[in-house]
Each structure stands twice: as structure tokens, then as C-alpha cells.
Amino acid sequence: MTAAAPGTERIRRHQWLASMGSAVRTPRGAAGLGLAGFVVAVAVIGPQVAPDSPGALLTLPFAKPSGRFLLGADFLGRDVLSRVLDGGWLLLLMAVAATVLGIAAGAAAGISAAYLRGRPDGLIMRTVDVILAFPQLVFALLLLSILGPRLWLIVLAVGLTHAPAVARVLRSATLDISERDFVKVAELQGMRPAAVMAKEILPSLSTPLMVEAGLRLTYSIIIMAGLAFLGFGQPPPAPSWGTMINENRAGLALNPWAVIMPALLIALLTVGTNLLTDAVGRAALGVDRRPGEAALADALDPAPNRAGNRA
Amino acid sequence: MTEPRAVRRPEPEPATEPGGPGGSPSPARPRAARDAHPVRHLLGRRAAAGLFTLCVVSVLVFAATEVLPGNAANAVLGRTAASSPAALHRLEAALHLNRGLLDQYWLWFSGLFTGHLGHSLVNGQPVWGYAAPRLINSAVLMAVTGVIGAAAGVALGALAALRRDGWFDHICAVTALAVTALPEFVVAIGLIILFSTVVTHLLPAVSLLPPGSYAWNAPRLLILPVATLVVVIVPYIQRMTRAAMIEALESDYVEMARLKGVPMWRIVLVHALPNATAPVIQVIGLNFLYLAGGVVLVEYVFAFPGIGQGLVDAVENRDIPVIQFIVVLLAAFYVFMNIVTDVIALLVTPRHRIPR
User: Fold this and answer.
1) Which pTM does this prediction carry?
2) How many domains does chain B have?
3) Does any domain span residue A4?
């Protein structure tokens, strides 16, 4: 290695921090961070500041908002404000867990498929094809119908449905990187394949990993809120935004806030994470390409070009 | 300005890599493959891969029910299984659980083609009789959504490309970025609040059809479900059309046509649009794929008697024969649409048609 190598290495490794930094300075990134940050704050601080117990029956079903109950009551006469404040943290936690799971499994599969080539590659990518043949929500429903609606199972099901898509993206990114000189050097030094993948290839993939993580987090929230809405989430007495929308639908004409608030929070959260992901993806590349070319490449084939044009 | 990135975009399989990762690398193509017509070649490989995937899917879906602790009959009957062995035996016979595993699979798999899919565990109706009308309703919903969504998306995208960086383009871009991230049931609830409960009472909030009638008997009931799905798919189509149109409009042949003095409408319709169709068709196909999953939540919200609502009902009741059938059907549709999309995209791109 030449004297310049350690320096370039450092830039390469911390590039994702730089793109994160420049992303939040763009209007989109700032808006995304603001929206998502607001909802996360509500979900995290909410349980501490909720005026009432989320499970207590306090007033008439679907009571209109009043000075005592700022957002009115739900279908059993529980305080909507308290339930909204208490109903987000578990959704967030589960979405993050599913995302981490999906990214980890997908990255492991995609990187080893691309680096090992040959038989493992074929085997992994055929498995990916099979899982991709189910729509995500349908796959989750199938698993839940068989094993019963348990929270860890929902996390597992959603994480598992993310993995194939992540694997495809990271496979194409790795194909390009595994031809680079620094990988060859590591191989010639006698590094074992697992070490090459973990120590040389993985750090170079930080940006596609980050963009994928943002994208999958948005999906996770959408699918989990949807599953809760369908009745496959926390069991009934617990407050959860998706569940609240469904159970209070019948009273829309009486107290719409019991539906509007949880729906609004879910919408702000997903729009926020999407805006932020978009800003990070743009910051990570596209600077060195013509706008038209970047737009088409983005639209046609988001990740592979992303990885290929960096470094 | 680059294009915003899409959430929930179904991952396309690149049409230029027909063999997939497991296939032989393209530079060293065998002679026979070089002689074959590329479209036929791709179609054959894709169909074979698709059939293989579907077989694995059917085994998986079937095996899934074997994972049930005890067996399916026990799971369905719950506690009553222990108290009434007669009911347990009847159910085991109905599910063919008293036969060997391979036998069971074969009975079920051949049933997929002959229509003998067994009976619903909830109401005893034959699965096919239960699913067929729902299938038709869902197909109507998806077809209407697809046509309206594609037309609206292509029109908006082409307009945005022509007035690039104008106010219309900016409004479209920002709206699309926000809308793509919205869960479909939130969009549906929003439309219900706006049009059928809180703000106005213009449209029915639920799309319950009387039994025996189909979606086209009551077009008013289709409006909100279709509107929800259109809102969800238009941003993707619009964005792709815009990107493809901009690429085409910046090309040398459009520049040439401009310099020759060809009128603008002719440039757009004759020169640019045909060259922008391949990616647009691909994204429309991918949105049909998305619809296969998206109808589940939207049908549930509006109580629309389609296949998606049928699946949710079946999952709630653990109605295993119905779940198996609907899941395999949706997977088959998914695989089939993937192939169709790739082949159409290949057919409309002239340079891909030429045998190499």
C-alpha cells in the first residue's frame, strides 16, 4: 500500500457520516428529520406525560373533545390523548428491530452471494426469488396465521420479508467492490473470505446500507401499522396507533380525533423517514452526474448505480 | 434536479440479465442461445424460473400448515379438540390429514388445477366457490385502478417533463415524495374522512356488495377504493414517465428533429414518447405487482368483497384451505406479472429485439 492509502481509507469509511451531515442541511433532509424527530419524541416522551392511564374507562364512548379530555374519548370511553401518547413506542421499537434484522440478514446474504459467486450465489438468489414471489404483507399474514399473532413473530416476519430485497441491492453493490484493488490486496495477504467480507467489503458499503436501512425502516412502519390496523398487533387493551384507527372508525362522525391523530402521526413518521432517506441518497451521489442521467438511473435501478458511482 | 427516491417500489429484475444470477455469464454465450431469438430465449428462461419458483412456493405454503403444533385440525378446533374426538376425526378426514404427507400434498396440488380445493373450515363452502366471485371483484378493482392510474401517471409525468423545473413540475415532485410514503390504509381513512363522514357525505364509506352481485353492478361503491389505490400508484408512474421523457427529450435525435424544424407536438408524440415507453411499461407492471398486496388493506378498509378481504377474514379464522389457495394465487400472479412486464419491456425497446 502507498502512503496515501490510510487517508483514502479513512475518507471511505466515514463517507456515510459526511452524506448524513450534508443531507440534513438540505431543505428535504431538514424537513424529514424534523417530522420524524417530532413523532419519535411524541412516542418516546409521550408515555411519561400522558394525563391519564391509557386503559382507564373515564367517560362516554366517543365523547367530543373537552377541557378535561383534549382529544375526546375512544369507542370505550378511554382518553384518546393518553392513548395516542402511549401508542407509538412499541411500533417504533418493533419497526427498528425488524429493520435491523432485515438489513443484517439481507446484507449477509447479498455480500456472500456476490463475493463467493458460483454455487452459493445461485442458491442464495433462488431463495431470494422465492421469498420475493409473495407480496410482503401476504407473507407476514401467512406466517401469523400459522403461528398466531405474537409480537416477536411479527418482527421476524417483517424482517424476513425485507431481507431478499436488501440482498439484491447489496449483491450488485458488492459485485463492483469485490473487483477493487484493496480487496485483491487483502486476498493476496491470505485473509480468509469471511474476514475480507467483514473487514474490507462491508465498510465500503456503508452508504447503500444506510439508504436501504432508511427505506426498509419506512416500509417496516407501514407494514406494522397496517398489520396492527388489520388486528394483528398488540392484543386489544394496549394502545397502538394502527389498532386505534381501526377500533375507532365506527365513531368517525362522533369523535373524528380518535382516528385522525393516530393516522396523522403514522403519516408524519413515514413521510419524515422517506424525506430523510431521499436526502441522504441524494447527498451520497448524484453530484458528479448530469441531472437527467442521475434521474433515469435512479428511477430505473436505484442501488447498483449508487454503489458503482461512488468511491 | 434528480428524481426523488421511491419507497415501496417493487424491486425490478433487470431485463438485460435474463438468466438471473444463477445463469451463465453473458459474454460466453453458447452458440444455440445466440441463434435463438432473444425474446423467445428470455421468455423460455423466465417461464422456467417462474414455474420453478411457483412449485417451491406451493411446497412452502403447504409445508407451512404442517408446522402447526399438533396438526391443523387440532389448531382449528382449539380446546374443543380434546373434548370431542369425533369432531377431530371428521376434520382430519376433511383436511386429508389421515393420509401420508406426499399424498396430502399431491391431493392439494392437483386440486389447484382441477378446482377441487376442499372446503372452507368456517362455513363449509367449497373454496373455489368462495374465492371465485371475490377474485372477479378484485380483478375489476385492479383493472380499473391500473387503467386510471397509468393514464393519470403518464399524463402528469409527461407534462412535468415538458415544463421541467416549472411550478407544475415542483408541485408534482413534492406531492409525489410525500404521497409515496403514506400507508394505503391512511390514504383510505383520509378519503373516508373527506368524502363520506366528517367533511362531506358524497360517497359511501363502505363498499359492501349484496351477495351474488359483482363490482360493476354498483360503480359508486368502487369510487373510493379505486381512488385510494390510484393515489398510491400514480407517483411512481408519474416519476418514471418524467425521468424517461427527460432522457428522451435530451437525446441527440430529438435535438436533430428540433434543428430540422419538426413541430413540437410531433417531437413529443412521435420521437420522444415511443422511446420513453419501455421503463414506463415496466413501472406500470410493477405497480400491478404492488396492487396484488395493496388490495388486501384497501379492500379490508372498505369491506369490499374481494380476494384481499377474503384473505384477512381467513387469517382471522385460521381457515387454512382458503389461506393456502389465496396465497398461492397471489404468488402466481406476482410471478406471472414479473415475466409479462419484462417481456413487454423487451418488446418495446427496439435495440433489445435484434438478435446478437
Assistant:
1) 0.80
2) 2
3) no
